[in-house]
Amino acid sequence: MTVIDNLSPNRPVTSQSVKRNLIGAVIGGAFGFGLIELMGRLGIRFKGMPAMDLVAIVIVIEFFGFALVLAYLSADRKRLASTIECEGTPLPASDEEVRDFRLQAAVLALAGLMMLIPIVSTQRIQGHAGRGLALFLATVTLFAIQTLLNIRLWRNSDEFARRTLLIVAAVTFSISQGLLFLTGAAERLQLIRTVSNWNLCIAMMALYLSVSVVTGLRFRSYH
User: Fold this and answer.
1) Could you give the C-alpha distances from 211 to 135, 153, 170, in angstroms and in order?
2) Which helix (H) or strand (E) holds 93?
3) How far is CA 215 from CA 9, 122, 166, 171, 222, in A?
4) Nearest CA to 160 among 20, 21, 12, 10?
5) Least packed by Cβ within 10 Å: which of 21, 104, 108, 156?
6) Are the C-beta atoms of residues 104 and 95 closer than 8 Å to each other?
7) Structure confidence by residue, pLDDT tens digits, 72-89
8) What is the model's pTM?
């Protein structure tokens, strides 16, 4: 579940960009509150929920929040162009730029949905193996669609975006490989209890997002 960032690295920090980031934070916060409220109304009990599930919910909120921001930006060509362009009076964004931002929004939304399904369904499939299978097949379908969208985004991305993604992937893989080995060794030596694949997946996703943010900020500071 990866996302390719097509935003320009040369974008200076201005009062307009700060305002836009604040608007994005407000949108994300409002959506997160609404999502938690909806889950509560659906009977999802947060009390006693495993810690990694709570971390997963935070990641889901981030995914959906970013997707909403990208969709909001792509709804107005001038607003989108002002986000992408570096200097001068921005022209209306092209059809390709609008398409790519909407594709990114779709990829993020699908990632959030795929992570959300196992969390909200755990308390509802007890004793219903058929429901679990149906939800798993739905998740596989969403994963296949998201993979195709990611491939399309990769083909449309510029060299900077591709290089950034490769660095993020390499760093995440290296750290995850080391942590996975150390966790496995600790289990075999009976120092810790068995860690589920779900918990490892959430930890890796949190690591991936953290590396993405740090790498993006460092790359932008160099331009």
Assistant:
1) 30, 20, 10
2) none
3) 11, 34, 11, 10, 11
4) 10
5) 21
6) no
7) 888 888 777 777 665 554
8) 0.76
